[in-house]
Amino acid sequence: MPRGELLYSADDPTLQKAWLTCGAEMNWGSYFALAMLPFLVRFVQSIRRYKDSKLPTHLINAGKYGMGIVHYFCYYLWRRDGESDGGASFVMWCLAAVVYSLYGCAWDFAMDWSICKPRAKYPLLRRDLVYTSQIPLYYVALVMNLVIRFLWVFYIPSWSYFNLRSFICSLMEMIRRVVWNFYRLENEHLGNMDQYRITRECPLPYSVDNPQQEDEEDEEDKA
User: Fold this and answer.
1) Are both 191 and 108 inside the same structural domain?
2) Which of 59, 65, 83, 182 could form a disulfide with 43 if both were Cys (CB 3.0 to 4.6 A apart)?
3) Residue 91 CB contacts under 8 Å (≥ 6 apart), including other chains
4) Handedness of CA 68, 73, 78, 82 (dihedral sign)
5) How far, in Å, CA of 112 to CA of 185, rounded?
6) pLDDT of 125-176, one tens digit each?
7) Is residue 203 included in any domain, yes or no?
8) C-alpha–C-alpha distance, residues 147 and 157, integer Å
9) pTM greater than the 0.85 cutoff
10) Does residue 209 belong to any structural domain of this protein?
11) What's the pLDDT tens digit per position in 9-45?
12) Are 107 and 59 in contact (CB under 8 A)?
C-alpha cells in the first residue's frame, strides 16, 4: 500500500469510529448483559429479602442495584454510538452515572459503614469504633470510596489508551472493595453486639474469684 493511502486510512473517520467502539457497536447488547448480571442477581436477592422481612431498606438496596443496571445500559449505549462527547446517549450516561455514584456512596456511608453520625466523637464517623488506633484511616477510606465511585469520568476524554484506562479503573475498584470490606465487617460486628448476638465479654457459668477467699468461705460453711 502506498504511503499516502496508508496515512489516509489512519485518518479515515470510519476506522476511527471502529477503533472507538472497539467492537461494541454490533455486540453491545451481549457486553451489557454480562456487565449487568451481578447487579440483576443482587437486585432479585434484595426483592426477595424484602418479601420475607418487609423491611423497606431492602427495597432501597434493590434500587441501588437497579440504578447500576441503568448506568451500564447507558454506558454501553454511549460506546455503541462511538463515545462522542455530545449527543443524547452521552448525556443519559453522565446523568445515570452521577445518580448511581451518589446512590452508592450514600448507601456505603449510611448503611454499610454506618458513619456520618451527628453525635460522634470524631466528625463524620460513628460513636463506636473498632480501629481506634487508626482514626485517620477512616477518613482516608471515606475520601477514597467517594473518589473511586466517580472514577467513571476517566472514560470521558476521547483520547486513546482505552484499555489502559479500563485496567486502571478496574484496579482501583478492586482496591475500593477491599477497603470497603474492612469497615463493612466492623459495622456488622458492632451491629451484632448491639443486638446481643455477641458480647464484648462472655460470662462464664462459674465464679472466677480468688481461690483463697473461696477456701475460707468453704471452711466457714463447714463450721
Assistant:
1) no
2) 65
3) none
4) positive
5) 9
6) 998 999 999 999 999 999 999 999 999 998 887 666 778 888 999 999 999 9
7) no
8) 18
9) no
10) no
11) 445 555 455 445 554 556 778 889 999 999 999 999 9
12) no
